Amino acid sequence: MDTVVSAQDLVDQLESLKQEFQRLKAAEEAFNRQKASLEALHETSLGLIEKLDQEELLENILERAASLTGIAHGYIFLLEPGEEYMEMQVGMGFFKGQLGRRVVKGQGMGGWVWQTEAPEVIEDYKAWPNRIADKGLDKLRSIMGIPLRNEGRVVGVIGLAHVEPDRQFSEEDITTLERFAALAMIALEKSRLYADVRRELAERERTEAVLRESENRYRTFLESSPDPIVVYDMEGVATYVNPAFEQTFHLSRDELLGKQIDFVPPESWPETKAAIQRMQSGQKINLFETRRLTREGKVLDVQLSSTLYQGSDGEPLGNIVTLRDISARKKAEEELDRYRGHLEELVGERTTELAQANRQLEQEIDERRRAEKSLKKREKELEAQSHHLEEVNTALRVLLKQREDDKKELGEMVLRNVQELVSPYLQRLASGRLDARQRTLAKILETNLSNIISPFSDKLASGMVQLTPVEIRVASLIKEGKTNKEIAEVLLIAKNTVLFHRHNIRSKLSIKNKKINLRTHLLSMEQ
Questions:
Q1: β-strand 316-325 against 238-241: which pairing, if any?
Q2: Distance between CA 111 and CA 124 in Å, rounded?
Q3: Is 176 exposed, middle or buried (0-12, 13-18, 19+ CB in 10 A)?
């Protein structure tokens, strides 16, 4: 019996030793795995910390997280500015096509870990009630999310997933990924700080470039300004003068910079000191008129403006003085004052003359009024005379009409007498035995007699035409159709004389140098 018990005890002890050995072996394997995990984490952290570019660092973090757990599918969500949502920045495997996806708190694995601020493992994502409603995610099976914390708050989520139905995450995977997330956050923070430093350096370089550009711009402005400009420190020592200052006061920079400029005339010192005191108390000196000396001692009238400039600490470093030579303007103003005084004298004289002219005008107005009264009286007298003259004119018109009627009656009586007492005898004479010359003269006599009693001769002798007696005789013969030769023979004159009279007749009848037949025109006048 004792032997049996001893054997059983031995078996029990052997079994106990075997279990202890297995436990120790399992502990050793866990220790080795933990050691390997820590070594991998250490190597990973060293590799991550060397990365400075955030995009490259995120990809490296995801790759190393996947290699630590032996998983091919993963992603990293990061909190966006404004903290309203997280966005998937990198993805691998299944999640490579999900880049840019955004989640809010409680939405999907990323939003759930953000809300709970704790690691989360889901064995079957498809059956999880907080999953994202996207059929493209139905292939996911077991999924794990680990928060990325910075200063006690979640700023991102690392997620890994299986798509095989029989694979699950272990506690060791969760522990390893938590440790890795802490190291990854250190690397991300370092990258962020590095990015901030780079942005700060870039901003500083841009600021320095802007300052250099601004300095060059203002220096160019100062150098090209037509007005003299001088910059003083708070001790009154010149630190800058522009070319216009040198040209205006005939003083060079070499003899001015680092010294107090002595170009204030003695009589201008009191007002200059008062202006300096106002400027040092913070007041701006604007368009202050004073005087300054050139190298040769010439006094210039200047208009001065001055203002303090400050350093980065707000303390005044000196003042900038702008001067403008107004000597020519002052001289012009003096001349203008003299001219204005002269004008005032002229205006006074002119005013006196105008006053005298006004008195004369008043006298003339009085005289005109008296003259108007006299004119009105004269108008009444002239109106009475005009009425009398109208009556006289009426009587004269009656007499003239009677005279015209008598003249017409006389003309008709003369015409009848000529036709009854003269014309028959002239016709008998022309039909008698006469030579050609005598017959022509008889014909002319008859024609002239007809013209005497017709309006043609009256028209030719009227004031409108003003023909001489010879020109009237020539015109009558032309109207009868006589040639120049025949007219010359009848009037016993030369042919050229006839031409001369024809030229004068055309001139007096206003048909000279016109294509008008003289005989036709004379015949038309008879109508």
A1: unpaired
A2: 17
A3: buried
| 181 vs 186: CA distance, rounded Å | 9
- Does residue 232 sit in helix, strand or coil? strand
Written as one string, the DSSP assignment of 376-396 is HHHHHHHHHHHHHHHHHHHHH
Instruction: Work out the pLDDT band at 143, boundaries 50, 70, 90.
Output: very high
Handedness of CA 51, 53, 56, 57 (dihedral sign): positive
Which residues are within 8 A (CB) of 405 and not within 5 positions of it... i.e. 6 or more apart?
A: none
Q: How far is CA 496 from CA 6, 209, 469, 502, in A?
A: 196, 110, 18, 10
- Taking residues 409-436, report their average pLDDT: 70
DSSP for residue 267: G
- The full 3-state SS of 55-102, as one line of letters, equals HHHHHHHHHHHHHHHCCCEEEEEEECCCCCCEEEEEEEHHHHHHCCCE
Placement of tokens 């309006």 in the chain: 455
| Alpha-carbon span 136 to 94, nearest angstrom | 10
Cα(417)–Cα(367) distance, rounded to whole angstroms? 69
Pairing of strands 86-92, 102-103: antiparallel
Are 474 and 505 in contact by the 8 Å Cβ rule? The answer is yes
Place of tokens 């996207």: 134
Q: How many CA atoms lie within 13 A of 509 on its CB side?
A: 27
Average pLDDT over residues 329-337: 87
Quote the pLDDT of residue 56: 75
Backbone angles phi, psi at 99, to 5 degrees: -55, 140
Give the gyration radius of the chain's Cα atoms. 68
Residues 6+ apart with CB under 8 A from 292: 249, 263, 264, 265, 268, 299, 300, 302, 323
Element (H, E) at 158: strand 153-161
Largest separation between any pair of C-alpha atoms in the chain: 226
CA distance to 125, 383, 392, per residue, from 378 (Å): 132, 8, 20
What residues contact 260, with CB distance under 8 A and at least 6 apart? 236, 237, 238
CA 79 – CA 150 distance, rounded (Å): 11
Distance CA 190, CA 305 (A): 53
Mean local confidence (pLDDT), 366-390: 86
Q: Cα separation of 121 and 268, whole Å?
A: 90
- Residue identified by tokens 């010294």 is 259
Per-residue pLDDT tens over the stretch 161-199: 988 888 888 787 777 787 777 777 777 777 676 666 777
Nearest to 45 by CA among 192, 193, 188: 188
**What is the full DSSP assignment across 301-343?**
EEEEEEEEEE-TTS-EEEEEEEEEE-HHHHHHHHHHHHHHHHH
